[in-house]
Design a protein that fits this description.
single chain, alpha+beta, 3-stranded antiparallel beta sheet, about 20% helix
């Protein structure tokens, strides 16, 4: 009779692969002040390209104040609007992430 540990190892490897796939493409967004502008860097946890993806700046009610796209260095720079706002990285397929103005480091 063959040991069962081979089957167990295969099952564990499959489960780990499934977990890695589930978390491999999480969106990442960081925004910070750079002199008088806000610089946001976005991408995906697995290193997938984010250039060309949309970034929106929204007011507290969710209205889009303006939007742009990430450049080839995966950054977007803008002059912050007055008051409270949020930055939303539209990563696609439910991969959106929001960064609130109160969390932007000065």
């Amino acid at each position: 009779m063959k040991p069962i540990h081979g089957l167990r190892s295969t099952a564990i490897a499959v489960l780990l692969a499934m977990c890695q796939t589930a978390f491999a493409h999480a969106p990442v967004l960081d925004c910070f002040f750079e002199q008088e502008t806000v610089k946001c860097e976005a991408g995906f946890s697995d290193g997938s390209a984010a250039a060309g993806r949309k970034i929106q700046v929204r007011d507290p009610s969710g209205r889009v104040l303006f939007e742009g796209v990430l450049d080839k260095t995966h950054t977007y720079v803008f002059t912050p609007p007055g008051g409270t706002y949020s930055v939303v990285f539209l990563g696609g397929d439910g991969h959106d992430v929001t960064f609130h103005s109160s969390d932007i480091a000065k």
